[in-house]
């Protein structure tokens, strides 16, 4: 299960950096939230605000994702709790965040992961 924990930490860092930067660039390239919302005006009335909301969520979650990933790599106790919160919020960000959030919750709530955090002081 330690391999899953390292994989989750790496994915959190990658999605935090990549998703945050991509969302920020996409938002700025379209002229901010109003411009991005107007870009989806022809598709649907509600699609634009949803895309803006997910983009802003990705930007806001970028730093906590990276910090959580670094904490999980170091097997810090606080990172497990924070990881559960971050993964729960990431589920809203469709599709990659949903996959990562579900995987993260599975890894962090697994009974096999608990001893890794409890035995950290002994290592």
Q: Could you characterize the architecture of this molecule?
A:
There is one protein chain. This protein is mainly α and 123 residues long. The chain has one domain. The protein contains six helices and no strands. It has helices at residues 2-29, 32-39, 47-73, 77-90, 96-108, 114-118. Helix 2 crosses helix 3 (47-73) and helix 3 (47-73) packs antiparallel against helix 4. The mean pLDDT is 88.
Total helical segments? 6
Give the N-terminus to C-terminus distance in angstroms. Answer: 17 Å
Regarding quaternary structure, what we see is: single chain
Strand pairing plus helix content: what structural class? mainly alpha
| Backbone CA Rg | 17 Å
Helix content: over 70%
The tally of strands reads: 0
Q: Would you tell me the overall average pLDDT?
A: 88
What amount of the residues lies in strands?
A: under 5%
Number of domains: 1
Based on Cα principal axes, name the global outline.
Answer: elongated
- Detail the poorly predicted runs: none
Q: What summary fits the major beta sheet? A: none
Q: State the order of secondary-structure elements, H for helix, E for strand.
A: HHHHHH
